[in-house]
Structure formats: C-alpha cells, structure tokens
Design goal:
binds adenosine-5'-triphosphate, Rossmann fold, 8 strands, alpha/beta
Length: 223
Amino acid sequence: MTPGSQSLLDVSGLSRVLDTRTLWQDVRFGVRAGESVALTGPSGSGKSLLLRAMSALDPLESGEVRLLGRTPGEWGVPGFRARVMLVPQRPVLYGGTVLEGLRAPFGLKVHAGRAFREEEATSLLAALSRDVSFLTLGTDSLSGGEAQVFALLRALLLSPSVLLLDEVTSALDPDAARAAETLLLGWVAAGPDRALVWVSHSPEQRARVAGRELNLRAWQAHA
Ligand SMILES: Nc1ncnc2c1ncn2[C@@H]1O[C@H](COP(=O)(O)OP(=O)(O)OP(=O)(O)O)[C@@H](O)[C@H]1O
C-alpha cells in the first residue's frame, strides 16, 4: 500500500467531556488517501467514542472533522456518514435474511444511484471463505463472528471512502480474521480516496494492518 500525499480525513480540535471527566482534548490528525492507521489507547479511553465523532454519529462538542476538506454539514450529515462509515464491533441487525439486510441500505436516499449487485456480495463472501448459502441465513440467528462478516460485507458493498473499524474481527477465528484483514487492505489499495482506521486490542493485528498508530494518550487531559 502506498499512501498518497492527499489528506483525506482531517480531525482537528476534537474534545469529549463525560460529566466531569475529559476523555480526550484537542485531538488532531490527518489520514491520507491509501493509509491504514490504528487508533490505540487503554480500555475506556474513548476510542469508540472518537470513531463515532469522526463519522458524525455524535454531535461534536468542539473541533471539526473534514473529508476532502468538507465538513459533515457541507456534505450533508447522512452523506458524510455514508462516506466516513463506522463498522461497530456489534452491528445493529434488523431481521430478515443476510441478503435482505445487505440490499436494504440501497433503498435509502443517501445511497440513491448505487445498485446492489449480488455477484459483488458473493465475491466478497468468497474472499472471506463463505459460500453463497450465507446470504440465506437469518440475521437474527447469526453468531457474533457471522454478524461481523455481515457488517463488513454491508460496509464494503456501500463503497465508503473511509472505513472506521471498531474491533471488527474480535469474534472471528484467526483464519477468518486474517481473511478479513486481507480483504480490507486489498480494498483500500484498490481505489483512490480510501482509507482505514482500525481500533484493535491485538498488537499483532495492528502490526499486520496499520502503517502507523495514533495513541489516544497523546490527547488525554492532564490534571
Ligand atoms: N453514550 C455514552 N454516554 C456516556 N458515556 C459513554 C457513552 N459511551 C461510552 N461511554 C463511556 O465513555 C468511556 C469511553 O468509552 P469507549 O467505548 O469509547 O472506550 P474505548 O476506548 O473504546 O474502550 P474499549 O477499549 O474498552 O472498547 C467509557 O468510560 C464509557 O463508559
């Protein structure tokens, strides 16, 4: 992977206060097109909340996030979230089959103009060592690992620009986790204006997937 010089996602001046505790303050960094970076920090330091802020899922208390120089307000918040897409550790499932769940977002206005292509889904599944029968499973009965496969598929099919990956392989067996890593690194290398931000508690995984690490300790408030 050869990161470009163009800054894709810029975070500046973000702070988050919980009651009286400041989780992080004045967070600032940029992620360039083609990059794969890891966001680290101890449990409870606010990695998940920072990813939520970066994808405009939580209102910002201070600072701003820009994709290609434009704020969520300038993109339109739903459009920004579709481009800077969070994949949570435990995805929200809405029932129905996997196929229906993968197809459903394409009916939303924000994804208008994009068509769901089942062959793309089966090809991604093959990369994750799953066959087409996965599409017929009910999302209500997916295991934790299967739900993570579903969430990754759903995200990749929607062609975001930046994927914010919050412990997305934590329930996968080691082989499946490696396959997911390979798929994601291949995805970021395959198109312009793509990047990955990983939250992972595994130093081995971070070493495999990330070109550099951003540690939240750098932005923790000092009493
Ligand atoms: N919606 C919320 N409202 C208030 N506090 C929250 C909310 N979500 C999380 N927290 C608290 O914010 C802190 C940071 O949570 P967060 O999940 O971002 O940490 P993390 O670094 O991702 O942790 P871990 O590595 O354990 O997953 C925790 O103390 C958590 O209890």
